Amino acid sequence: MDWEREKTYSFNRGFEQGAQQKAVEDALTLIRDYNATPETAAEKMGAPLDKVLEALKEASLA
After folding, report:
1. For the segment 8-49, what is each residue's pLDDT rounded down to a tens digit?
2. How far apart are the C-alpha atoms of 33 and 17, rounded to whole Å?
3. CB of 2 within 8 A of CB of 19?
């Protein structure tokens, strides 16, 4: 039974991380394509501001 619980937990955690990553990517799109501020984009997409700023910094270096 512990294995099933761990599997469910891992699945849910991965799903949440994927959803957060998608929100960050969507926020970057708002910033680039629509000139939104990072704060507004993060708020509208439901992404953590620190993750949006980090992704924006990484994208600028590429």
Report:
1. 989 899 989 999 999 999 999 999 999 999 999 999 999 999
2. 24
3. no
